[in-house]
Amino acid sequence: MASIDISQTAPVMVPPADAAEGAGAEPGRLRFEFSGTGGEYFRIWIVNVLLSILTLGIYSAWAKVRNKRYFYGSTSLKGASFEYTANPVNILKGRILVLSVLVVYQVVVVYAPLLAGIMGLAFVFLLPWVVVQALAFNARYSSYRNLRFHFDGKYPEAFRYYILWTIFAIFTLGLAYPYAIYLRKGFMVNRSRYGETSFQFSARARYFYVVYVIATLAVVGLFVGMGVLFGGIAAISGTFADAQAGTGDPGKAHALIVAMMVMYLAVLAVVLGTAIVVQTLITNYVLQHTKLGGLGLDMRMDPMRVLWIQLSNVVVIVLSIGMMIPWARVRIVRYRFSCLSVLETEPLDGFLASEREKITATGNEMGDALDLDLGL
Amino acid sequence: MIRVAATYYDGRSSAQRAAELVFTEQGQIEVSGEEIELSFKYPELRISSRLGNTPRYVYLPDGARLEIADNDAIDSAIKTLGGYEGNQFLHFLESRYTTAFAALLVCLGVVFSVIEYGIPVLARQVAFALPPGLESTLGREGLETLDRGIFRPTTLEPVTQAKLQRLFHTLTRGDSESPITRFELRSSPRLGANAFALPSGIVIMTDDLVKLSENDEELLAVMAHEVGHVHHRHILRQILQNSMTALLVAGLFGDLSSIAGLSATLPTFLVQQKYTREFEREADAFAAETLRARGIPAAHLASMLKRLSDAHGASEGGLLNYLSSHPATDERAEALNESH
């Protein structure tokens, strides 16, 4: 839910640059390098799966760290790699906590439905805290050039953007939804730091509205088109089957089952496809309007290319009964990083650690009140 | 003496400095570079474990860190330290295709056994251990929901209804193992000829099914099949097995992004359908047994199944079978005919 991956939007992970127009080998533009390969990652992944199974899931916390270490370590910018430094024990504790709460909730649902309702309401208030906790944990244990990232977002702000704005979006029949997404992205960027330097978000809500309005129109248009198409096919095949089999019930039923399955897949493809395109456009826009100190980021993913990669990944994963998961994952991450760059208008060497980090470095680690990973 | 090229980061700024690590024969580790001149004994610093071909990190006591690209160089240097092996076992497993292939086989074997035996056995144990009272709310609410939705009151003559009730109770009498059962008749134009078992032993038959039957033996056969579901606690076991399957698949595919995670829905669905087909077979076997105890040929269930599948125009066999919640009718009829 709230887990953040370097493969995803979060600017938390990624250091400085500038969103200047034009690409290519212009001076000062630094490209991310991703050196992970499907074969290498497959071996790491399968050992992770094996040990997780054999330890009844306990190893999964260590597996998560190894996974993230692999993707972080395979990513480099200007001769320095990213590093994931979380302690698996903290991840295990977080998982046990979340799992216990879910088990308790399941039991309560069966034996005390009223109490379950109260718990459900409590989860609503808990969600922003979980989001903040997960983002902070991930940022804290991500570093580049021996400087940590940080996320300083606090509960009240998260509660506004994740709960109040969601409710507001429902009451306005979705009209406020793009603005809610805009606020959430701003929250994630503005409250993130690299060392002592804060990220800055200069995006405007207008673009979010443009993307969501076009996406909504596209989905409606595609559904109407599909309805007409399938209606026509159903009418033709229905009469055809009738003519062939006289009263012909079985043939018709068979055709209907196939038609319904095709229809289901088509609806799924339209909804998913649109979601992927929207997500890609928003990610591009958000990163292009993210700065770190005097530097900015640039992200130029082609939505159609991402669509192709994601959908073909799903097909390949299903056909390989999951064994191509590592290949699929490396494939999409490699594409994302190939589109991400940084313009070094200010030396990359000039970032400073935050005061707290200096304390940490001398060994007086205070330890956060709750240093748990809640991003499952 | 082994020299390893590195990049030095002091932890106070992002400044990058070229550095060199020298592992001496005396077990001393010297770090040198621009304005850097340090010396350590091994336990004072920590070296990250190898992971594929990703860079390695050397953590110095003052919070500084060295990044090393050359994995082989640092590995051979580590050997000279003696005693310090780091976590080489995981790298041993991860670095060759033979171990990866072995891991894959073990994983497939474990997953297969869990689906084939682990989940069904566990669900059976739990289902029979749970108090029957747990199901009653589930059954009552289920029937209420169906009554508001697809069910209409039965339109059969009261005489017929009474006869069917009697018929049903001849089945359940003397069966102390089954939970208390209840027989209900409903009309449902949308479902057509059908019969179900709900949790807490409610058996429902539609008017259309009664009309479709040619004799009481056939109705008794269908009732016996549904009582079979009740007797074997199939509904509860199905709920348990489905959630366990979802948990297993989530565990295996769980760390996928939401989009790729969708590829997990198909295997979950296939496994769950496999379980329901097994329940149908078990209920058929129960019905055959019950009928035989009363001197009625199991062929009555087979003929009723055949007529039902004709009435619904279901497609049989082939690939679609894997998507189906019931085994193919021919296969069921064959099993029933063999059972006596």
List the helices and strands and how they pair.
The complex is a heterodimer of chains A (376) and B (340).
Chain A: E1 29-31, E2 33-34, H1 38-54, H2 60-73, E3 75-77, E4 80-84, H3 88-111, H4 113-140, E5 142-144, E6 147-151, H5 155-171, H6 177-190, E7 192-194, E8 197-201, H7 205-244, H8 249-288, E9 290-292, E10 295-299, H9 303-319, H10 325-338, E11 340-343, H11 355-361
Helix pairs in contact in A: 1-2, 1-10, 2-3, 3-4, 4-5, 5-6, 6-7, 7-8, 8-9, 9-10
Chain B: E1 2-9, E2 17-23, E3 28-33, E4 36-41, E5 46-47, E6 56-59, E7 65-68, H1 71-81, H2 88-94, H3 97-129, H4 133-148, E8 152-153, H5 158-172, E9 182-187, E10 195-198, E11 202-206, H6 207-212, H7 216-231, H8 234-253, H9 258-261, H10 265-293, H11 299-312, H12 329-338
Parallel strand pairs in B: 9-11
Antiparallel strand pairs in B: 1-2, 1-7, 2-3, 3-4, 5-6, 6-7, 8-9, 10-11
Helix pairs in contact in B: 3-8, 5-7, 7-10, 7-11, 8-10, 11-12
Overall pLDDT metric of chain B: 81
Walk across the major sheet of chain A and give the strand order: 1-11-10-9-8-7-6-5-4-3-2
Evaluate the radius of gyration of chain A: 24 Å
Overall shape of chain A: it is: globular
Give the helix/strand class of chain B: alpha+beta
Please indicate the percent range of residues of chain B in DSSP E strands (runs of 2 or more). 15-25%
Largest sheet of chain A: 11 strands, antiparallel
